[in-house]
Write a structure and sequence with these properties.
By secondary structure, the chain is of the alpha/beta class. Strand 2, helix 2 and strand 3 form a beta-alpha-beta unit.
């Protein structure tokens, strides 16, 4: 019988409106992946801007953390999942083709399932 892998879902709702809060899901997500915990980050509200191509290249670092571009690259390289709210990008007139390749478009039902399946859900 195999052991169940732990899962954490991080919901990010900020971008350059609050750089420190924008960094936190990726800081903690990278730590979780390093601990062999499955990590998913779901971007909602203004957080969806982080998945826009080139957006994080010019963001200020928050909270003394490494640049968000590096944190996101590390998160994806370690196998983290990045989900982006479809209604949120529509509200902000962001076309799906303007998102980074690794971003998976999602909506409420799928996010609810991810939250139910997670061992912990943290919102920033």
């Amino acid at each position: 019988m195999s052991e169940k892998q732990e899962k954490i879902l991080y919901i990010g709702t900020h971008a350059n409106d609050h750089p420190e809060k924008a960094h936190l899901p990726f800081v903690l997500g990278n730590a979780a992946l390093a601990m062999d915990i499955k990590a998913t980050i779901a971007l909602q509200a203004n957080g969806v801007y982080l998945a826009q191509k080139g957006f994080v290249n010019h963001m200020l670092s928050g909270g003394g953390f490494p640049p968000l571009k590096k944190l996101m690259e590390d998160f994806i390289a370690q196998g983290g999942e990045l989900k982006v709210c479809k209604p949120c990008i529509a509200e902000r007139n962001i076309d799906e083709s303007d998102l980074i390749e690794e971003a998976e478009i999602t909506a409420g039902g799928a996010l609810n399932i991810a939250a139910i399946e997670a061992d912990a859900v943290l919102v920033f």
